[in-house]
Amino acid sequence: MNNPIIIVGAGLSGLRAASLLISQGIECRVLEARGRIGGRVLSETVVDRPDLGTFDLGPTWFWPQHEPSISSLVSELGLQTFAQHTEGAILFEQSKSEPIQRHVLPEGTVEKSVRIIGGVRSLIDAVSATLPPGTVELDTRVTAIRMDEEGTITVDADLAEGKKESIGARAVILALPPRIVARHIAFSPSLPVELMTSLVDKPTWMAGQAKVVAIYNRPFWREDGLSGQVTSWAGPLQEIHDASPDTGSGALFGFFGIPAKMRQELGEERVLKLVVDQLTRLFGPSAEKPISLLYKDWSSDPDTAVDEDAEPLREFPNYGQPKSTSEWNKKIFFAGTETSSELGGHLEGALRSAERAVLEV
């Protein structure tokens, strides 16, 4: 009996790869270190207030006009989308002491994106639902991948409660950030130096970032003719957008301009206080008391970030397939958005990499 294909990582890329393999009658197992599926897709509700909606602390939107894989998959799975709100003026903040500038951009300047009703987690759940029960194994942390002289692959994993398991594999798809592969999985024989360098040189998308969502009863800024979009040099948020669901409550989300080390030194409570101060400065007294603040610092997530990711990205990374795997050729394959040569860092890149890896397998 043939061993299964082992997929390491149950983010969008790993789940999609599994779905494609199973649709072709190829047995696979998905091993996930976290206690949940989704990877960097993280959609949350407010405790005791699910009526306010679901909010994304990871990827949020996509562009149907440029991203055919996710557009096709969303349609195939019967998911509903709505247009990201961009109507109205945008705000520019040069410093805390200077007046906030308000500008209306010419029509067509902001490219239209869409969001999935129920958050991107709806996509994760829908792809997961295409898999047979038991395909995904949570709390299963792959620690080593070994190949013997006959080319037989064994995957070693740590399970819950101190248990361990060794699993035979026909091949392995590594659907997790390349730097996590390089830093946390031991290979025997060792991966070539060129390949290891290629893995480490691919920064994990969002790994140095944090995201905050401020939730309100309604999107009150729209009543003032504002889109919710802000560019700020004063911070702590350098980029803010409307995060409101398709109906009901209002929400604003932002990315930080202050680096990971500074956020960690300040602590979550102080960081969130600075966020509320900034939103009040920008949007007035109505922003002063959000119903809830949702916060995720990806740089503090050991299943996302390594030490190198604490350095802010200065330019878009050089994503694409890692370089040749020599004796590991046709035994290990790479998926995940950082391994996509097109639209790396996007949900589209995650899907394209999964499609490519399955074709290679």
Annotation keywords:
8 helices; 20 strands; single chain; Amino_oxidase; five-stranded parallel β-sheet; 361 residues; alpha/beta; seven-stranded mixed β-sheet
Can you describe what's shown?
A hairpin with a 4-residue loop joins β16 and β17 (237-242). This protein is of the alpha/beta class. The protein is elongated. Strands 7-6-16-17-18-15-19 form a 7-stranded mixed β-sheet, covered by helices on one side. Strands 9-2-1-13-20 form a 5-stranded parallel β-sheet, with helices on one face. α1 runs parallel beside α3. It has 8 helices and 20 strands. Residues 111-358 form the Amine oxidase domain. This is Flavin monoamine oxidase family protein. Belongs to the flavin monoamine oxidase family.
Cα-atom Rg, whole angstroms?
21 Å
Read across the widest sheet, the strand sequence of neighbours is 7-6-16-17-18-15-19
Strand elements, count: 20
Unreliable residue runs: none
Task: Tell me, briefly, the overall form.
Answer: elongated
Residues in helix, % = 10-25%
Largest sheet: 7 strands, mixed
Helix/strand order, N-terminal first:
EHEEEHEEEEHEEEEEHEHEEEEHHEEH
Q: How large is the count of helical segments?
A: 8
Approximate strand percentage: 15-25%
Q: Compute the average pLDDT.
A: 95
Family: Belongs to the flavin monoamine oxidase family.
InterPro entries: Amino_oxidase, FAD/NAD-bd_sf, Flavin_MAO
Domain Amine oxidase: 111-358
Pfam families: Amino_oxidase, NAD_binding_8
